[in-house]
Amino acid sequence: MASSAAGCVVIVGSGVIGRSWAMLFAGGGFQVKLYDIEQQQIRNALESIRKEMKLLEQAGALKGSLSAEEQLCLISGCPNIQEAVEGAMHIQECVPEDLELKKKIFAQLDSIVDDRVILSSSTSCLMPSKLFAGLVHVKQCIVAHPVNPPYYIPLVELVPHPETAPTTVDRTHALMKKIGQCPMRVQKEVAGFVLNRLQYAIISEAWRLVEEGIVSPSDLDLVMSEGLGMRYAFIGPLETMHLNAEGMLSYCDRYSEGMKHVLKTFGPIPEFSRATAEKVNQEPAPPRGPAPATPAEQRDSMNTTRGPELEPGLS
Ligand SMILES: NC(=O)c1ccc[n+]([C@@H]2O[C@H](COP(=O)([O-])OP(=O)(O)OC[C@H]3O[C@@H](n4cnc5c(N)ncnc54)[C@H](O)[C@@H]3O)[C@@H](O)[C@H]2O)c1
């Protein structure tokens, strides 16, 4: 295995997210050790990472300054967690979203790590205060929540336990930047962290508008893909407010009463009923990319329905 000047990172859990982290850390020049309770998962991960990196290299989309082969030399499987964590600077836990399972893993890590390594969880929604409760090394613990697919979406939410040391947050922030991700700090834990709170607010209102028959599912999606989403791909909602007037104070003077009037009409949390889910499933997806050239292509594109082909579990 090639030695790495950047340091050694351990990935615990070699599924979808563990593989992505492995590729990102190798791209940043880190030595990566992949651990999993299933040996076959480690083999599968190494194989799929090899294929993916070769394809990315061919497409000119491989991250970092090393070649695919050089990055692949940095990644190895390790069937023993104790051996894997020896000399590691950062451990990224990526096991399934199950509080008891993750607590068990962190308790095990807590008993074998030194006082320097960072213990980081990829959890999408478990609270750091629950995950890291009672650990001796709690100051070194943090949630680093990636967004799927992490290789293409750079944001990482950093969420500390109330006792996490500020240096742990700073070190994780610097590490994420070093591998080309875009870390942001959630200052206090909250259900859904920040990304999913924003996402769920949008989903909730989208669902309600469709359920109440105010807009069709495909037109609702167009509002985001051809409207709001175009802005939000470049600037956030607060910067949008600032630019919509002469600064934030002017925006609030002009629009806050109107916004409050509309916000008061928002209903309760939707039930996400099967009836509405089926209605959304039946709807043709909005057209994507260049308009179909022929009537046959047009028919084909309109035959696209939602549901089965949508990627599951984006978070
Ligand atoms: N998939 C997403 O969209 C997404 C996005 C952001 C964050 N996350 C979070 O990342 C974490 C991992 O999700 P995933 O989608 O990669 O899961 P996954 O099911 O693809 O992979 C989990 C891996 O953990 C392994 N594992 C199970 N028990 C283990 C143990 N005791 N020790 C070591 N390995 C063990 C499994 O064999 C499997 O390889 C979850 O907390 C999830 O919430 C997922």
TrEMBL record:
One Pfam family this sequence matches: 3HCDH
UniProt region (Disordered), positions on chain: 274-315
Q: Which UniProt keywords apply?
A: Cytoplasm, NAD, Oxidoreductase, Phosphoprotein
Cytoplasm listed as a keyword: yes
**What's an example GO cellular component term for this entry?**
cytosol
Q: Enzyme class, one word? A: oxidoreductase
Question: What EC number(s) does its UniProt record assign?
Answer: 1.1.1.45
Q: List residues of the 3-hydroxyacyl-CoA dehydrogenase C-terminal domain.
A: 192-280
Signal peptide range in chain numbering: none
Q: Where are the residues marked Important for catalytic activity as a site?
A: H145
User: Per the database record, which ranges form the 3-hydroxyacyl-CoA dehydrogenase NAD binding domain?
Assistant: 9-189
Per the record, the GO terms for biological process are:
D-glucuronate catabolic process to D-xylulose 5-phosphate; fatty acid metabolic process
Query: Where does it reside?
Result: Cytoplasm
Q: Which GO terms describe its molecular function?
A: L-gulonate 3-dehydrogenase activity; NAD+ binding; protein homodimerization activity
In this chain, composition skew of type Pro residues spans 284-293
**Can the keyword NAD be found in this entry's annotation?**
yes
In terms of Gene3D superfamilies, this protein maps to:
N-(1-d-carboxylethyl)-l-norvaline Dehydrogenase, domain 2 (1.10.1040.10), NAD(P)-binding Rossmann-like Domain (3.40.50.720)
| Protein family per UniProt | Belongs to the 3-hydroxyacyl-CoA dehydrogenase family.
Q: How does it assemble?
A: Homodimer.
Q: What is this protein called?
A: L-gulonate 3-dehydrogenase
